[in-house]
TrEMBL record:
Family: Belongs to the DinB family.
Protein's name in the database: DinB family protein
One family name in Pfam for this protein: DinB
PANTHER family (UniProt xref): DAMAGE-INDUCIBLE PROTEIN DINB, SLR1116 PROTEIN
Alphabetical keyword list: Metal-binding
The keyword Metal-binding belongs to this UniProt entry's keyword annotation: yes
Domain of life: Bacteria
Binding site for a divalent metal cation: H49, H129, H133
Example GO molecular function: metal ion binding
Length: 159
């Protein structure tokens, strides 16, 4: 995989996020925190998982392996989660400007066991992981009686 292709895959995921943030900002705190079910109980909890996972993978790419998942105190509401995501996305763009897609990255997942992956494999993982859970967010929006954003990576690639 070439660097430009890798950057485009990450940019597509970020573009989909940009379609989601207005819908997430429109939720009341009660809607964001209401337990509606899914892998994570609420829109807030699902979004926290997504942003925390993207942060953790960026940390690993940068040579730092966090020891634990960030909890709600890391970003206590959707506004703070969006700010955290914007920090991650900005740092990640800078990283991928110079990243060698086939370079190997050594890291420790939260289990503590040493692991190693190529840069492109990590990017494919975190973008796929995010897209999977955004599908769950769509279901949670529907359970709240709301229409989720219609945003798909292929639409980015068609631009």
């Amino acid at each position: 995989m070439e660097r430009a292709e890798l950057q485009r895959i990450v940019a597509a995921s970020d573009w989909v996020w940009e379609k989601w943030w207005p819908a997430l900002r429109a939720l009341s705190p009660e809607q964001a925190g209401r337990a509606v079910g899914g892998s994570f109980p609420s829109v807030y909890a699902t979004t926290l998982h997504l942003v925390a996972a993207e942060w953790a993978w960026l940390e690993r790419l940068l040579g730092r392996s966090p020891g634990a998942w960030p909890g709600p105190d890391w970003a206590p509401d959707l506004a703070r989660l969006e700010a955290r995501w914007r920090e991650v996305a900005s740092q990640r763009r800078a990283y991928f400007e110079q990243a060698e897609p086939t370079a190997r990255v050594a890291y420790r997942p939260f289990t503590g066991n040493p692991s190693e992956s190529r840069v492109w494999e990590i990017a494919v993982h975190f973008t796929t992981h995010t897209h999977f859970h955004r599908g769950q967010l769509a279901g949670q929006f529907r359970l709240l009686g709301l229409e989720p954003p219609s945003a798909h990576p292929i639409a980015f690639f068609r631009l």
